[in-house]
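Reopening this one. Same input as before:
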Amino acid sequence: MLSVSASGSFAFDRISIGLGGAEQSSNVIRLGLQKDFGRSWYQTGTSELTGYWEASISHLDTSDKRGDDITAYSLSPVFTYRFKKITFDPYIEAGVGISHISKDKIGSLDLSGHVQFENRLGYGARFGTHRQHDVALRYIHFSNAGIKKPNDGINMLLVVYSYKF
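Same output, byte for byte:
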């Protein structure tokens, strides 16, 4: 099992891969490790609010000779509102995290720094006997929240598959 630990109590329980596209970029690949919060709020018989932590690396490939490729390292708490069904559990999600990007310019976009916020919205479904499979569509936006100008930002749209250990 993959784990990161300060006290031995934190272990990732899900791995993900996402493929998609972004502005000024023809291809995006994203790898993530996730850890469920292990608790939920607002439980009803058919739904609950829960979430997970995600540590990820995203590579934006411009597929040109300019060398504008960007790698982003991110850590995000993500809140998920899950609807419990018989054969699958659809959900919607939102989160805001922090990222470090390798370059602050990509094509004509100027991000004005290497530290960025990562905002996300998505929807998907967990399925399988133990809900071990997850397929989602995620919109992810990197920007500095207007702390420094210019603040062009990067938008990505990804299809993501996750597997729970």
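So the earlier flakiness isn't reproducible anymore. For the record, The mean pLDDT is 89.
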